[in-house]
Each structure stands twice: as structure tokens, then as C-alpha cells.
Amino acid sequence: MTETQVCVAPSPYQVEHAQFETIWFTAADGVPLNFRRLRRASGTEDRGPLLLSAGTSVRADIFSPPTADTLPRYLSRAGYDVWVLNWRASIDLAPTTCTVEDAAVLDFPSAVDTIVEYTGADSIKAVVHCLGSCAFMLAISNGMLPKVSTVVSNASALHPEVAPLMWLKMPPAIGLLAKVLPDLNPQWGVHAPGFWPKLARTLMRIGHHECDNEVCKMSSFFYGVGFPALWRHENLNDDTHDWLSGEMAQVSTKLLTHVSKSIRTGHLIATGKYDELPTDYIRRAPATDARFAFMTGDHNSTFVPVSMARTFDHFDKYSPGRHVFQKMHGYGHLDVFIGDRAAEDVFPFILDELNRD
Ligand SMILES: [Zn+2]
């Protein structure tokens, strides 16, 4: 009897994952972090290293959805050596309690130093998203990332702002849950271990009927006021919508508490915990020579577009005409990276801004 072997060609998704290498390093306080590195495609002009950072509740792989093209692959083909960061809030690392401040001081300077050390580059560029962008922007605005020359920042930077309805939901929810839970988890839509997770899931199920993906709906319950909140369904292909079930997980309530206080203050708070972060930094000129492109989806219902407009205004005030602000028409929060047509609608803008010296 002979066995029949069925050979199935690997998908672009599988091929891309096989090309990443993992590089470990330590944050300034010794916490182990890592990069997922995708080197520039062979035969391309060397455009140097690029740091790519996601937000919270996700990991580096969030930039590699099952779409025809992805941002790491797109930038690699354009000649960039892509370093996708798992900072301390990544779901690929052990759950931790931290704030944006901690990541700004302890993670991002070490991350940039690691890339410079490995590559020997004089400077690097960066694409940063959501709370990863907040932490990065806090660091670079306070002179901690002098080797970064160009930045594309998405969704939120120094001035996180949410929709009016979120003002009703967020402070009491985070205030209560932070007292009893170390983290929140969109996976509670599938498995809710204990009273508080079950209560959150019950409340989610009362209000969310937009799809059959419990993790998608739980993410929307936590991270905005939309149906869904983090992306627009019409921008995702079916495979990506399914894939997200395994890509959303825990986020520290301490981190969300810091962001919630920052939203009420009108900008990211520096609490005085670190000497590197003066509490009045927001009233000073940004301590960086980098050029910035601020972008966001015009339907972003996690951090509303005025978030980025305010940070752009802050930078433009000190260096008029040098930086740009771009809204992505028809896009929400995360679908600018994982949308089925993001490679046509969004990635060219990112690349153009990175290539502009
Ligand atoms: Zn959904």
C-alpha cells in the first residue's frame, strides 16, 4: 500500500513568518524583550534599519495578517531592514504591570540602541502605533532617542483623546477593574475565568451583535465605542477577521489607568517617577531633530483623529512646515495596517514619508 502525499504550497503568510528571525535583548531594568526582524529583500537598495512597534493587547505579529501583502514585507521590498518590537506590553511576553512611562524610559531607548549596535547604522527610522507610539513619542520628545531621524506615528502620540461616549464608559470601568484585576483580556469573549471576566463578557454580549467573533466584539467593548471599534469590518478580509481571534490578549490595567489619567489631563502624563521625564515636558520644544509624519484613520473610534492633530500642532508650533499630518480616508484604528487594501491605500504614504530626507 502506498501513501499519497499532498503538497500544498506555503501561503505568503507562512513564507513571511519563516523569514523572520527573533533577536532578544534586555530593557534598562533587565526585562527580556525581543525583535522580530525581517531583513531587506535581496537586490534592493539599502535604506537602513527601521523600528516597527505595535500597541498593547497585541504582539509584533499583528503587522503580519493573512493579507496579500503586509507592511513588514512591503518595507523589506523597499529596502528597509525591519525590526518589529515586542515591548513589555506585548502578549508574546510574560504578562506585566507597566505604564507608558515605563516603556518610554526602559524599553525604547534600549530597543534603538540594540538596532544600532547590531546594524552599525548611524541612525534609524521608525513606524509606531497606538500606545507603542505614545511610549515612543514620550521618549523621543524628551531626548532619549537621538539616533532616530524619521518617524511615522499612527493613531495616538502625546495627546490621546477618545470619543465622548468613551468618557462615560472608561473612567468608571477602569477605576473599578484596576482595583480587582491586573489585566483585561479580549480572550474573555471566548473564555471568561471568574466573576469579573464573566461580568465583562455579559455586558459585551448585551451591546455587541455586529459579528460572530467573540474576541473581535470583546476588543470593541474594551477599546472604543464602535461596532467594531479597532477596525472597520468592511476593511478586513474574512481570514484576517478570523485570525484576529488569536492576536488579541491581555493588557495591564495599570497601563490603561495611566492612559485614562492622561486623557483627562489632555496629554501623556509624566509623573516624576523618572528623572529622564520632566513633568512639564509638554510645555517645552520636543528634544529631537527627527522629522515626523502623524497619521490616523478618519474613522478611528479608539483614539479620535484630533489626538494626532494635537500632537502635530505641538510639533508644528516649534518647527512650522517641517512635519505632516494625514488622515486615512475610510479607515479606523488598526485596519490601516491589517486592512485588505492597506498595501494600496496606506503603505505608499508610509513609505513616501520614510524615504523623504
Ligand atoms: Zn468582528
Automatic annotation (TrEMBL):
Its cofactor is FAD. The keyword Ribonucleoprotein does not apply. InterPro entries: AB_hydrolase_fold, Cholesterol_Oxidase. The keyword Flavoprotein applies. GO terms for molecular function: hydrolase activity; oxidoreductase activity. Keywords: FAD, Flavoprotein, Hydrolase, Oxidoreductase. SUPFAM superfamilies: alpha/beta-Hydrolases (SSF53474). Belongs to the GMC oxidoreductase family. This is Alpha/beta hydrolase. It comes from Antrihabitans cavernicola.
